[in-house]
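PROTEIN DATA CARD
Card holder: RNA polymerase sigma factor
Chain length: 251
Origin: Sediminicurvatus halobius
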Amino acid sequence: MTAHIPAQPAREAAATRTVRQPTGLPGPAQLPDERVVARVRAGEVALFELIMRRYNRRLFRIARSILPDDAEAEDAVQDGYIRAYFQLAQFRGPEGFASWLCRIVRNEALMRLRRRAPASDPLSALERPAHREAATADPCSPTANPEAALHEAQLQRLLEAAIDELPEPFRSAFVLREVEQLSVAETAACLGVEPATVKTRVHRARLLLQRNMTAEVVSLLPRTFAFDGARCDRLVGRVFERLGVSARQWR
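Structure generated from the sequence above:
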C-alpha cells in the first residue's frame, strides 16, 4: 500500500514522490516531524524522505545564503542531512526539529565558507554559473510569453546577484524572512539570535536592496534560490545512497 506525500504549503513546497507506507500503520505524511523522527529512529529509514522533502528548499536557501555557489550549497545540505541522521538520538528540542535541522545545515555551510580559498574567480556575481542556473526560465511559470519569461529570468538573476552582495548576517536573515517567508521567531530560532536582531538585520538588508526592490522584483522573491523538481529528487537519492539505502527500499 502506498501513500503520496501531499503538496506542502507555499513556503515549504517540495516535489512529491510515492513513499512506501509500512503495513498496518496510518499514513505518515501528516505526522509532525517529531513522530516521523521517532519512526526513523525505530528503523523506518525510508521515512527520512519525508523530512528531506519537507525541508529541502528551506535548507538549500539557508546554505545558499552563506555560500555563493549553488552546487556547494547543495553539497552542504547533503552533508547536513547525513550529520542530522546520525545525530537524531541527540535531538531534544525544545525549539523544534526544523530549527535544529536548520542550525546543522547552517553550521555546515559556515564551515565550508571558512575553508574556502580566497576568491580567484574573475567572473562577476552576475556571471557565476550558479546564477545562470537560477536565472533559467521556469517552464511552470504562469508567464506564457517567451519574451516576458526571459525578462522575468533576467530580473530573477539580478535579484539573486543583489542578495549575494549583502553582508552574510543580513543576507541570511533576509533570505529566511523575505524569501523563505519564515516568521521572525522561526528565523531567530534558525539563526540562533534574538528576534530583535532579526528585525534589525532584515531592515538593513532592505535598505541596502532598496534601489533594486521595485514592485516587479519583490513579486519574484518567493521564487528566489528555488530548489525543487529534479534537484530535489537528486538530493534525496544521494543522501539515501550515502546512507546505504537502496532505491527499492524508499521509492
